[in-house]
Amino acid sequence: MHFFDDSLYPENQEKLVIQAAPYGPEWLPGDADDLPLTMDEHVQAAVDCYNAGATVLHIHVRELDGRGSKRMSMFNELMARLREAVPDMVLQIGGSISFAPEDEGSDAKWLSYDTRHMLAEITPAPDQVTIAINTNQMNIVELFDDEDIEGTSIAKEAYYKAYRDMVVEAGPDFYLEHLTRLRDHGIQPHFQLANLAQLETVERLIRKGIYSGPLVLNYVAIGGGFAGRHPADLVEFIRRVPDGAVLTIEASMRAVAPMNAIGIALGTHVRVGNEDNLWRHKGERMSSVEQVEQMVQIANALGREVATGQEAKRIYQIGAWYSGADETLAQLGMVPNRRPGQRGFMLRDTKS
Q: What does pTM read for this prediction?
């Protein structure tokens, strides 16, 4: 992304889109005060986050015993109810479905490729499904302090080890097929990227015409194989993202607010919720709704407007697809592919 002298003026920035992730799939009941359990509570969490200012909802589902649900029937039920309760929200299903261990001592792992592909057949269809690109370590506890998890299930040795050793399986056999299925069902992929190497893989998919659509993505700064919290890495990632992409910052625990404050100031978008963070300050809990409200307060302090639901759908370009590599590159503000015999650095096409 290019920054001009006036790029930090809030009146020149796109309105802020706030993602809410209030379903905390790694936690068990009692770990957080606002974990929804019943279907009614799932719906109410969405309504409360929307009323606080969130316009994108990151979705997981929980069984009544507190475990993350892996049943597509529950996703179907929740999607139908959310379409009625929060019609203006962008509804985004988490592509892992549930990575939580089945019981203490079990592995924390993403579900099989075939199971994840079933997300393309959810009815009613979500607006987005998040997608991982390239197999990668996902040690979500690497950046956690002892105080972050004190008194929670993850403080138990078996659960801690399960999350420490978790891996995201997302090789080419997965993402090539998944992108095809999502497009066939009119569902926008939301790319969850751990590093610049994964961003470069996505660019290759675009340049080869394998993916032709808006580039909507998260910079996932949770450590343990994903990006860390160094501000220079964040700024470099922002610099490398195409001008026409939509970028959201995602961090973990008490780094969420400062990382997102940087993102708000630079004109990107933010994600909050109990899936990422439980704390306002050291020792002081913070609900998902309160985290959304905090982002609204930071945006207001900087003079940056918060997007409505309809504006978020426009910014995300929900429903938009492109005809191939050339159109996608042009829409994203990227230089075209090199033509045979063409030398030197590439420039955007111009009309004489």
A: 0.96
